[in-house]
Amino acid sequence: MFDRRRFDLPALFCYPNGVNISHVHAAPLRLPYRDPMKTATNYFAEATGLLIEIRTDEGLKGYGYAELFPRAGETIETAQPIVRDILAPGLVGRDANDFHPLLDWMEKQVTGNRRAKASIEMALHDLRGKKTRLPVYELLGGKVRESVTVMRMVGLRKPEEMAKEAGELVQQGIRALKIKIGTGWKEDIERVKAVRERVGEKVFIKVDANQCYSADEALRVARLLEEFNVKTFEQPVQADDWDGMIYLTKNSPIPIEADQTVRSIADVIRVIRTGAAHVINTSPQKAGGILQAKRIADLCEAAGMPCILSSIAGCILNDAASIQVIAASRSTHLPCEVGESHRVTGDPTRGLEVVNGEISVPTSPGLGVEVQFPP
């Protein structure tokens, strides 16, 4: 049985047969985009985040990453002090095997800040995998698929420019595209029409309005987009417009996907109970960790609802964490938004490659990737 008094012991105390944490380091990571990405609500010129390294007294190293930007509610300037000044001092000296008690402790120390805490949880998962010599997906219940079909994003531009980018991606073997829309129904229809004409009927297309429509506008757009075989319509209305999401889910000819509407397990339960979406979009970053994302995926499986995992361009660690969840979850059978790391430069992580539109699930221990932590 777990003894909570352990947390009151001096940091240097070593527990029998334990894997004691000796260091927790957090390094800011700024990765310039090769070509900036524009959406209806964001403009990304660089990926910003926090790279975490947790070392144990026996020499193991686990790595995590926090994907940070203002619209997500966390930045390097907010996350780094939380990890450095609050979480790291309390983790040093404790047993990395006490996974769930450590997560409970973090929740008691810091309210919110899911991405900062997710980076620590990710590194602890990586450590557990390396200690047991198992991939993280085995710790989550075992693998149900060998590879992940990649969905790549096409940023907001003129229709002909978006069609050109989409065509180039398909030539590279990509079979699923996420088309950014949200500046007005006429322009958005032209964008999707141009892309569909360029890539043909066999390519999976999803559109993402980033909360920019009213419910009535979104329904009009959905009816017009049906002609172009659009598979899902992501977050058409504001995140807190539950009535709008329910209305669209009942009436749209295209399946509705909840992204910003779903930030927690409680949100997922509410979506399932109210019928506020056909598809759930989550990630270890949004959910607050790998374990929470897996719980969301399992809830979706129980409800007979597809779940996808997504991330913006950034450190490969982010994709690696998502792929471990996808590999272990039956509900994640649709193309997922991973593999965007090609957009950035300077990533200190290696180990995932997109081949013919798919990423093979790595079988190495932990997250399955290699990290060169900054000196």
CATH superfamily of the largest domain: Enolase-like C-terminal domain
Number of domains: 2
In one word, what is the shape?
globular
* Total count of helical runs of at least 4 residues: 12
Structural class: alpha/beta
Assembly context of the chains: single chain
Strand order of the largest sheet: 5-6-7-8-9-10-11
Number of strands: 14
Helix content: 25-40%
What share of the residues does DSSP label as strand, in percent?
Answer: 15-25%
Q: Give the CATH architecture of the largest domain.
A: Alpha-Beta Barrel
Query: What is the CA-based Rg, rounded?
Result: 21 Å
What does this structure look like?
The chain has 375 residues and is α/β, with parallel strands linked by helices. It folds into 2 domains: 17-133, Enolase-like, N-terminal domain (Enolase-like, domain 1, 2-Layer Sandwich), CATH 3.30.390.10; 138-371, TIM Barrel (Alpha-Beta Barrel). 37% of the residues lie in helices and 20% in strands. It has helices at 76-91, 99-109, 114-132, 136-139, 159-171, 185-199, 215-225, 242-251, 265-274, 284-287, 290-303, 316-327; strands spanning 21-38, 43-56, 61-67, 147-149, 152-154, 176-180, 204-208, 232-234, 256-258, 279-282, 307-309, 349-350, 358-360, 370-371. Helix 9 packs parallel to helix 11. Residues 1-16 have low confidence and may be disordered.
